[in-house]
């Protein structure tokens, strides 16, 4: 009897350990590349290093200083404006394309899906460099075309146009990604609903508006939340465009850019780390406020 009992015990232990073994690679990478850097940054944030006094523990002083820094809040306002400009257009275009592809009236859907998704595969740095060339006030193709036609050259990088120009880059990068998510959600809708709607005399437009959109609304809300988080972390585009638009983009244009400048230009690593945590808290508050607003409207 000892043999079968021991085998049963080994099977039970194996069943308990199997999930842990499968989770172990992710857990190790998660700890190594997220938890450990965050703990290190938190350790930096509670200290202050000066030439005279050296490194000393200051507790929450750096966090309080970041909360009272006007440059930080100016950057947050810029990001909120960016989100208002960029997210609605991206979501609307992605939804429209996904609905058109799902309607069954488009030929070569695979080709269009891949073509629209390809910009997402381009790294943000490369995408910004491409659009920086297109926006170029001296050598860009839009400027050359305007000069050839005898028209004033468009100023895509001016103080009043730089934010829509950056939003356009973000839309070019991420609209295809959002479209794929919406298209996958639409494909999961049972065909029986469309047949029932057509029997009731509903047109394709009415079916899309009254049935499809409400069914994928939770997915749309999730993507908007992720877009809000991504917008509040904007860094690459302003950083790379600054040489082309020094009058429009300062080194504190966004909080991430400001934190980068503090750390690597001013050697204020402690204050920069604290500012990063404050930005994370602001992002969490804004995301939660959006979720709360959506839930209240849904309940109403």
TrEMBL record:
The chain crosses the membrane at residues 20-42, 72-99, 111-134, 213-235, 271-294. The lineage of its organism: Bacteria, Pseudomonadati, Pseudomonadota, Alphaproteobacteria, Hyphomicrobiales. Belongs to the binding-protein-dependent transport system permease family. InterPro entries: ABC_transporter_permease (IPR051393), MetI-like (IPR000515), MetI-like_sf (IPR035906). Pfam families: BPD_transp_1. Coiled coil: none annotated. The keyword Nucleus does not apply. Residues 76-290 form the ABC transmembrane type-1 domain. It comes from Rhizobium lusitanum. It is found in: Cell membrane. Signal peptide: none annotated. It comes from the Bacteria. The keyword Transmembrane applies. It is a multi-pass membrane protein. GO terms for biological process: transmembrane transport. Keywords: Cell membrane, Membrane, Transmembrane, Transmembrane helix, Transport. GO terms for cellular component: plasma membrane. SUPFAM superfamilies: MetI-like (SSF161098). This is ABC transporter permease subunit.
């Amino acid at each position: 009897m000892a043999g079968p009992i021991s085998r049963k015990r080994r099977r039970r232990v194996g069943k308990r350990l199997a999930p842990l073994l499968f989770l172990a690679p992710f857990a190790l990478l998660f700890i190594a590349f997220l938890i450990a850097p965050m703990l290190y940054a938190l350790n930096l944030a509670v200290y202050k290093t000066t030439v005279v006094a050296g490194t000393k523990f200051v507790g929450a002083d750096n966090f309080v200083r970041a909360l009272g820094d006007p440059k930080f809040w100016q950057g947050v306002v810029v990001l909120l404006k960016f989100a208002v400009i960029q997210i609605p257009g991206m979501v609307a275009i992605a939804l429209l394309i996904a609905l058109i592809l799902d309607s069954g009236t488009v030929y070569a859907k695979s080709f269009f899906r891949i073509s629209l998704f390809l910009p997402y595969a381009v790294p943000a740095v490369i995408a910004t460099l491409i659009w920086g060339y297109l926006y170029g006030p001296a050598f860009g193709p839009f400027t050359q075309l305007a000069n050839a036609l005898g028209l004033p050259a468009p100023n895509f990088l001016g103080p009043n146009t730089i934010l829509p120009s950056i939003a356009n880059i973000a839309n070019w990068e991420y609209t295809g990604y959002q479209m794929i998510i919406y298209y996958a959600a639409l494909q999961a809708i049972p065909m029986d609903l469309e047949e029932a709607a057509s029997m009731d005399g509903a047109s394709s437009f009415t079916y899309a508006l009254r049935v499809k959109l409400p069914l994928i609304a939770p997915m749309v809300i999730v993507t908007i939340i992720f877009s809000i988080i991504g917008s509040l972390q904007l860094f690459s585009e302003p950083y790379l465009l600054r040489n082309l638009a020094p009058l429009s983009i300062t080194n504190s244009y966004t909080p991430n850019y400001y934190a980068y400048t503090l750390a690597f230009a001013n050697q204020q690593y402690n204050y920069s780390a604290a500012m990063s945590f404050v930005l994370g808290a602001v992002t969490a508050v804004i995301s939660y406020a959006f979720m709360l607003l959506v839930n209240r409207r849904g309940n109403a």
